[in-house]
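Re: beginner question about structure tokens

> Can someone show what the tokenized structure looks like for a real chain? I only ever see the sequence side.

Sure, here's an example I had lying around. Input first:
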Amino acid sequence: MKLRPGTLASCLLACVLARPAALHAAPAAAHSAPARPALTCARVRSHADVWVASSVDALVRAARAAYERDEAAPAYTRLLGRLAGTIKRCELSQDAGFAGRHREFVDYVGAASPATLPDHELGFAVSDEQYFGETRAYVEIPDFLTERGFVRAASRFETLPRAKSYLRQVNSHRAPSERLVFFSYKSRHLGTPDNQDSYLRLLVVVPGDVARGVPERWVQFGVTDPGVRRRTRNVSVVASLARAEGTSDFYFKDYYRTYRRDGTIPIAGRWELGYGDDNCVQCHKSGVLPVFPVTGSVSDEEREAVEEVNRRFRGYGAPRFGGYLDASKFGPGLGASNGADREGRFGGGFRGSAVAGAMTCAACHRPDYLGALNWPMDRVLVSSYVKGGLMPRGHQLPDAARRELYEKLVREYFDADAARPGILKSWLLGRLR
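And the corresponding structure tokens:
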């Protein structure tokens, strides 16, 4: 029987991706199933291009669904895990011919699949336990920020003046280059991991010492809103350590405060406390994030501090992640297209429009500068920046145009159309070399 290419692709995808438990199960007897995995690998190898094309199509569609709807994320994770399992079982990454033809696909699945494992919630190549053990010295909260009175004052909006008075006192004993940069503000984007409705922050940037290998640390305290009984617990640390080639390694850790009846507030790692963790780089493509407070949430005397931390952000160079993640394996990101492709995708008159002119994310968000905005990425963060008028910088657009800009950036990146695939699919298929 002769199968059409589309039918063959569907059959291969069904054979290789379906029933993962059966594919990994041990044979019941010497005369039974052991030939089945070999047969599956033989099919994959004999129709490698068709299998990869079908797998990429399924992966991109699942990725877009997961980006747009949180409840679709488990299906994407299962698919990614099955693809990684097939590549490993069939030793496809060791096949020079296969790996050479499908380098981007193999690299992506290899880099992204650790996040499917239960002990790799951070999304890194090593387990969460190993990561936190090896990076402890970088992401520890400095002792002076765990002082009992300061922690209590930094935990509520009403007592923030006392916390800032303490920080000013610390600065009075420091050289100018070692002084803390701090301010409080209200975030536009995300709540804290423990309370998605909490947007108040106290950010303290603690200068590092490159010569001694001491990173600069952004220590951010979630602050409980006025009059709210439920205490915000999160304290996050992002550490930046400059490298000789003009890049910076970034390290991450979330902590939780525990509010005890005796008034003490110990701080311990969120992961160590048993609350799990999140995929750090999903939000932190650039390492740390620039700070764009809600208008009016920063006092006049602290605006200069906001400018200073954003200046530091721009000076860190291209983000690296200490060897725990190779961001180049995730490909180009939002906006990494060209006028001809956009004209074909969105129509002949689109190229000269204001929206087309604002699709410039990749001018800054590229591997050698701020890091590409590629999948996996956070929908709330990206939507807030684009629709809220914060990105791309320098483009003044009305709200309707901002919504169109966001829709077109997402469509251009995730489009799975066979005739004109989007950025992610084109890259995974090796068409952007």
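Each token stands for a local structural state, so reading them left to right follows the chain. Strands lie at 181-186, 200-206, 216-223, 234-242, 247-257, 267-269, 318-320.
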